[in-house]
Amino acid sequence: MDLDFPLRKIIHVDMDAFYASVEQHDNPELKGKPIAVGGGSKRGVVSAASYEARKFGVKSAMSGYMAQRNCPDLIFVKPRFDRYKEVSYQIRSIFFEYTDLVEPLSLDEAYLDVTENKKGNPSATLIAKEIRQKILEKTGLTASAGISINKFIAKVASDFNKPNGQKTVNPEEVIQFLEDLDIRKFYGVGKVTAEKMYRLGIFTGKDLKQKSLEFLDEHFGKSGKYYYYVVRGIHHSTVKPHRIPKSVGAERTFFENLSSEIFMLEKLENIANELERRLQKSKIAGKTITLKIKYSDFTLQTRSKTLPYYIANKDLILETAKELLYQSELQNSVRLLGISLANLNTEKKKEEPEKESVSVQLKFDF
């Protein structure tokens, strides 16, 4: 294939069952046992599950009740986010030994651009191997990695040899790799989208590639263009050391369902206080406030309002959240409330427009 844009050497590092692995490392009695971080109460939600628990279908975002039903021997562990942050910073310090182009996605994963790196090592594959070994030596934890010419392919590749493995997709392998890929493996294709693609006869990257841009636009809106280009190996998004958030939010799950708006006002005030703290820490404000309501039957509803000015003050946030709460009748009792602020006052550089043609230097060393 011929790619006429500059090729980069991108590594996606993803820690293996991070929260659960930290708990098993710090408490050897938990090693080899099915554990879930969080989800310990009847209202709780699992934040992370060990690989031993995943064998029983236990996964993040699952209710504690469901997790326990799937795995009767499941051990629930209370989250320790300060400890996870501490370990995450240790891991990031290793990344910065190789490059300053590090884009954290969360505490347990990040992109690294090592096209030019501090070690002068031309092999991204060997760099990824070194990084994973250093993480193991420094933290006692394992990591997996994906290596390729852009962030999309590196992200997809990091899932292939989990846990404690890595996969490199060389430039000359990109097209075949993407054509053979199960559509469910495409980053950005969730369960609902995958089912829609199935109905349209799209099961693999090759199937997706056969669809025109007009067809994908018609059926998937703005995402259609994204699918059209990534399946051709085109993804120009660069590694951004300082990621700009699209929104900032806070939410709370309640031990007992709330059935009246009056009982929710105190909860909303606490959430607004937390949101204000996060906004002040990030030194940003926003115009669009969204109230998130999750009902006792797990259905989700959002209500939003865009103001003509930026706000970051808890009183203004709370005032708008109350207005949204009283906007219409509640459908059921409520188990979760959240407030988020979007349309933030941060400037983001426009990304380079997508190009239709690609060329690849097959001797580009990975």
Helix-strand makeup class: alpha+beta
Radius of gyration: 22 Å
Q: Main β-sheet, in a few words?
A: 5 strands, mixed
Proportion of β residues?
15-25%
Say how many strands there are: 12
Number of domains: 4
Q: Determine the fraction of residues in helical runs and give it as a percent range.
A: 25-40%
Going across the biggest sheet, name each strand in turn: 5-6-1-7-8
Binding site for Mg(2+): 14, 108
Site (Substrate discrimination): 19
Protein name: DNA polymerase IV
GO molecular function: DNA-directed DNA polymerase activity
What does it look like?
- This is DNA polymerase IV.
- Monomer.
- Its main location: cytoplasm.
- With 366 residues, the chain is of the alpha+beta class.
- It has 4 domains: 10-16 and 82-170, Reverse transcriptase/Diguanylate cyclase domain (Alpha-Beta Plaits), CATH 3.30.70.270; 18-80, MutS, DNA mismatch repair protein, domain I (3-Layer(aba) Sandwich), CATH 3.40.1170.60; 173-230, DNA polymerase, domain 1, CATH 1.10.150.20; 247-344, DNA polymerase, Y-family, little finger domain (Dna Ligase, domain 1).
- It is built from 13 helices and 12 strands.
- It has a 5-stranded mixed sheet. A 4-stranded antiparallel sheet has the order 9-12-10-11. It has a 3-stranded mixed sheet with strand order 3-2-4.
- Strand 2 (35-38) and strand 3 form a beta hairpin.
- Helix 12 (261-282) runs antiparallel to helix 13.
- Mean pLDDT is 89; it is low at 347-363.
